[in-house]
Structures are given as structure tokens and as C-alpha cells.
Specification:
Elements: H1 5-8, E1 13-14, E2 20-21, H2 25-42, H3 49-119, H4 132-145
Antiparallel strand pairs: 1-2
Helix pairs in contact: 2-3, 3-4
């Protein structure tokens, strides 16, 4: 986001007492500066040519500081976006690691089931942890967690 003049000064108005107001960062800062300078003037601490010197110095310093604030604002905004993107990436990577672990568990279970089913003399020789019902449950859980909507029992058992 680029710095614009409306960020610096906007909605500037002068009232009947010649008080300048506005909504930009410079305007807000100058309102505070003017209040302080007026208080010093009213107290008799600043008068004559000193008033002009103090006002000019305050004006120059306020312009410089308002500019720095606006320039840093863009940097901060960019950093916020970057950090948000990093957080989203970490969250997606974490989900990816979880998904990968579930896929590996499912593959290991299906491989174990395939081997046991192909070499077993009878159904009682297949361990309970890899019987059809257990495999179906693990497969359904993995598919649900991966947001895949298919039948968990393709051979109709």
C-alpha cells in the first residue's frame, strides 16, 4: 500500500478562530503542537520573533516525523501481511504433515491386510487389527480427515 497525501493530511478545515483541523497524521500531530505552542505563548514564555522561530521549528519537525510515521506504516503493514502469510503456511504445513501420517498409516494397514489375507489359511489367522472391519474403520477415518468422499468398502463386504 503506497503512502498518499490523504494519509498525511486530509479533511483540512479552518474555523472562525483560524484553528486548522484535519484527519491526516500530520494534521493530528500539528493540532497537538499548536496546543502546546499556544499554551507557552499564553503563559508569556514565547513572544515576538521567538514565536515564529518556535513555530517554524515545530512545523519542520512535525512534517519530518509525520513522514517517518507514514513510511514506517507501509513497512509495518507489509510485515503484518508477511507474518500472516507465514502463519498460514505453517498451519497448512502442519495439516500436511498430519495428512501424510494418516496416509502412511493407511498404506501400512492396507499392505499388512493384503499380506495377511493372501497367506492366511483361514480368517481366524488374520490379526484383529487388520481384519476387514478394522481396515474399513481406518480407511473411513483417513478419508474423512482428508475430506475424500468415496465408499470405504469397494468390494462390497
Amino acid at each position: 500500500m503506497a503512502i498518499t497525501m490523504t494519509d498525511f493530511t486530509r479533511n483540512v478545515q479552518v474555523d472562525n478562530d483560524n484553528v486548522v483541523t484535519g484527519d491526516g497524521i500530520f494534521d493530528d500531530m500539528m493540532e497537538a503542537v499548536n496546543t502546546h505552542i499556544k499554551a507557552q505563548y499564553d503563559a508569556g514564555r514565547i513572544n515576538g520573533t521567538d514565536y515564529a522561530s518556535v513555530y517554524l521549528g515545530a512545523l519542520q519537525a512535525t512534517i519530518a516525523e509525520a513522514t517517518k510515521i507514514l513510511m514506517n506504516k507501509d513497512i509495518v503493514d507489509a510485515q503484518v501481511v508477511t507474518e500472516g502469510n507465514k502463519a498460514a503456511l505453517v498451519a497448512r504445513q502442519t495439516k500436511g504433515f498430519d495428512d501424510d501420517a494418516k496416509q502412511k498409516l493407511l498404506k501400512q494397514t492396507l499392505d499388512s491386510w493384503s499380506v495377511a489375507y493372501s497367506v492366511a489359511q483361514d480368517a481366524n489367522a488374520i490379526p484383529d487389527s487388520i481384519k476387514v472391519d478394522s481396515v474399513d474403520s481406518i480407511l473411513k477415518n483417513a478419508l474423512d480427515n482428508l475430506n475424500i468422499n468415496v465408499s470405504t468398502n469397494p468390494i462390497g463386504l
